[in-house]
Amino acid sequence: MTVADLEKILVRPTDPVRDAMLVFGEGHGMVLVIDEQGRLAGTVTDGDVRRAILAEFDLDRSMAELIELPRLPIHSKPLTAQAGTPSSELVRMMGEADVRHIPIIGADGRVTDLAVLDDLVKQSDSTLTAVVMAGGLGMRLRPLTEDLPKPMLPVGDKPLLEHVIDELRAAGIERLNISTHYKGHLIQEHFGDGSQFGMEIGYVDEETPLGTAGAIGLMEPSDGPVLVINGDILTKLDYRSVLRFHEEHQADMTVGLLHHEYTVPFGVVQVEGVSVKGVVEKPIKTFLINAGIYLLGPLACARVPRGRRYDMTDLIEDLVDEGRTVVGFPISEYWLDIGRLEDYQQAVTDVELGEVSS
Questions:
Q1: 129-352 has CATH 3.90.550.10 classification
Q2: Which member of 9, 203, 261, 309 has the lowest number of beta carbons within 10 Å of its beta carbon?
Q3: pTM: predicted TM-score of the whole model, two decimal places
Q4: 3-120: CATH homologous superfamily?
Q5: Among candidate residues 227, 35, 39, the one with its CA nearest the CA of residue 127
Q6: Which pLDDT score, from 0 to 100, does residue 25 have?
Q7: In the chain, where does DSSP find H-type helix?
Q8: Parallel, antiparallel, or unpaired: how do β-strands 275-281 and 10-11 relate?
Q9: pLDDT class for 101, splitting at 50, 70, 90?
Q10: For the chain, domain boundaries
């Protein structure tokens, strides 16, 4: 790793966790926390932060506070190696400790480098492929969808679906299937075989709507993980972080989650029997909701039946009932579900303001 690359992933203990998240994409999904003298105070991965979010950790708190959390496996005393350690020894150490990174420490105790397994050992190319579910009728967006399928609505200077494809390509995904139904020929005419968009694109046409997962049952079995995203979602999520989380937890299915707050519009009365014990005025309730982004392992894909309606919620419930590993991946990045006219207007505005790549 060059000095410039190393500098990108160094953060201070006082830095807010939210700011540190911005650099995860620069350093294989991790940051090194260093003190004023450049000594290592801890390492924090993207997965560490996602687990902290599920534990309701405030991202405006400091990196030092995150490292000190007792109930999360944050690496305040990470495995390190001395400068000059042979590559073969670094690979052995990583295998023994089941890690993919080792900070390198100089004779003065300062961080000088980060050894990364992918750089030391040639890894096979990722087999991650993607599926975009783009067959919906878009009824709530009428009259805009009378002549166009929802994924082809213009957002900035290109269709909504093209924004989705741009983000998939940025994550290194090269193979994509698009599930179509309503006016699917317009999608196929625009994207073709995908060569003009830097992708290899195939299509699965649903003669009748098969739900949010049913199209997967019509596709060829996959040997690797499959990213599935609803075609009406704009997000700046780096999908590589979802894959790392999925692999770290050896999951059969990973479900993207969002925190959603709902304000009860009334005073909530607390009672015991007939006695009133208090009133909470317009309390805020927080829920984790489905973000429409999933990562499926081969076993999960094989569970989707062929040719009949089947939703992602059905798949989640079936896998949980079987005792399979289904994990939640919290999303804190930009995310917008374009289901209503006001959502579409928000998407157009966000692209104009640069919130989404245009």
A1: yes
A2: 261
A3: 0.84
A4: CBS-domain (3.10.580.10)
A5: 227
A6: 62
A7: 3-8, 17-20, 46-54, 63-67, 87-97, 117-120, 160-170, 184-191, 239-248, 298-302, 312-321, 341-352
A8: unpaired
A9: confident
A10: 3-120, 129-352
